[in-house]
Specification:
67 residues, three-stranded antiparallel beta sheet, 2 helices, S-adenosyl-L-methionine, transferase, EC 2.1.1.189, EC 2.1.1.190
Length: 67
């Protein structure tokens, strides 16, 4: 079982995801969407000036079903 699957089973109100690889963040964003979580915020941090590296913090929340 993947870490994201375990997190989803715990049904947290928010997941904070820290990523240094945009491709992995995109992959895991799609995976979390399949598990019922939506991307509600994202922020990039230039922690390594003068390089191409950017750290991102993404926030996910459960998708609430409309009744």
């Amino acid at each position: 079982m993947k870490v994201l699957e375990v997190l989803a089973l715990m049904t947290p109100r928010r997941i904070a995801y820290v990523a240094c690889d945009p491709a992995a963040l995109a992959r895991d964003t799609a995976y979390l969407a399949d598990l019922g979580y939506a991307l509600v915020g994202i922020r990039a941090f230039d922690l390594f000036p003068m390089t191409h590296h950017v750290e991102c913090v993404a926030t996910f929340a459960p998708v609430l079903e409309e009744r």
